[in-house]
């Protein structure tokens, strides 16, 4: 069975992405074949494409999609042909019309959630779930800092924090993005292109600063994030949008207030089918109860994935971006 997919044979800029025909294998005992209806675009995709995260070449791309099961392996009991399913983890290859993959990465999509919503919320929603509910369990009344608050993960974080009674301070790059973040529940915003983030955090918290910073930006915000933390606060570095944090002098953590740092990953927290099911149910419940609205502000045909990557890395996107097979 043939399918169209985005592949790359070398790492680099967006021109390495090729729209090709690929063979879709028959599912093994514990696998299923899925026909994609919507594919999620995420910043981590650019890390694989660019070579920051190594892969065996040639390679597919993408970790997040939603669709319908077409074939089921003999040992798969929890899914059947025709089920609406989604995933946010697993082997690279979501940028495709069809694929065969391990069944344990898939969860059923509840009624009331569309394919596009599921494809936009799985990886991003599960990321916010593990950040807010596991890495540092934010509590009502706390004030936190979240970088890139108008992005796909950021807008979910703004809404989730508000639902929990947490004051989220979000950093943004423009007044337009500040308005978007605030409309989604951010308590306050800081335009880092015009304002000093650490100084503004001090003002907003009356000098107390924050107990936790969620930083998916990386190199460019590392020191600023540390300067926003109260004594013994936790720096959660969960992404590298500006490049990886390297050459760390651990002594700086002592100098800035006996700080803690963690570099978590989705796979490190949601590493069993049971944990995936539980976390997914919590994400879907937030969507179904309208506490989180999924903002899908960009759509691209799958074959134009390179254009989608360009828009994402140049910070021209807000909310989620969906690729349509």
Automatic annotation (TrEMBL):
Domain Enoyl reductase (ER): 12-323
ATP-binding is among the record's keywords: no
InterPro entries listed in its UniProt record: ADH-like_C (IPR013149), ADH-like_N (IPR013154), ER (IPR020843), GroES-like_sf (IPR011032), NAD(P)-bd_dom_sf (IPR036291), QOR-like (IPR047618), Quin_OxRdtase/zeta-crystal_CS (IPR002364)
CDD domains: QOR2 (cd05286)
Gene3D superfamilies: Medium-chain alcohol dehydrogenases, catalytic domain, NAD(P)-binding Rossmann-like Domain
Keyword entries, A-Z: NADP, Oxidoreductase
PANTHER family cross-referenced by the UniProt entry: QUINONE OXIDOREDUCTASE PIG3-RELATED (PTHR48106), QUINONE OXIDOREDUCTASE-RELATED (PTHR48106:SF13)
Listed name of the protein: Quinone oxidoreductase
């Amino acid at each position: 069975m043939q399918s169209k997919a985005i592949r790359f044979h070398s790492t680099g800029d967006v021109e390495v992405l090729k729209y090709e025909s690929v063979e879709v294998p028959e599912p093994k005992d514990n696998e299923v074949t899925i026909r994609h209806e919507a594919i999620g675009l995420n910043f981590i995709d650019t890390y694989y494409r660019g070579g920051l995260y190594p892969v065996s070449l040639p390679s597919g791309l993408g970790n997040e999609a939603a669709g319908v099961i077409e074939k089921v392996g003999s040992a798969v009991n929890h899914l059947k042909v025709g089920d609406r399913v989604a995933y946010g983890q697993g082997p690279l290859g979501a940028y495709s019309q069809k694929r065969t993959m391990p069944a344990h990465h898939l969860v059923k999509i509840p009624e009331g959630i569309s394919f596009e919503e599921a494809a936009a919320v799985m990886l991003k929603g599960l990321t916010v779930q593990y950040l807010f509910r596991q890495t540092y369990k934010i509590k009502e009344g706390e004030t936190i800092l979240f970088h890139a608050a108008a992005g796909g993960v950021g807008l979910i974080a703004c809404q989730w924090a508000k639902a929990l009674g947490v004051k989220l301070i979000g950093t943004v790059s423009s007044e337009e993005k500040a308005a978007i973040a605030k409309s989604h529940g951010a308590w306050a915003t800081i335009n880092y292109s015009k304002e000093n983030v650490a100084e503004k955090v001090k003002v907003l918290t009356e000098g107390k600063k924050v107990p936790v910073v969620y930083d998916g930006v990386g190199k460019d915000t590392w020191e600023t994030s540390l300067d926003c933390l109260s004594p013994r606060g936790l720096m959660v570095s969960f992404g590298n949008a500006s490049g990886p944090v390297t050459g760390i002098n651990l002594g700086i953590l002592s100098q800035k207030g006996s700080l803690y740092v963690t570099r978590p990953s989705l796979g490190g927290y949601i590493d069993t089918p049971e944990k995936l099911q539980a976390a997914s149910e919590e994400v879907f419940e937030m969507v179904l109860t309208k506490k989180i609205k999924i903002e899908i502000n960009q759509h691209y045909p799958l074959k134009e994935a390179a254009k989608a990557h360009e828009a994402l890395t140049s910070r021209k996107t807000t909310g989620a971006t969906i690729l349509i097979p």
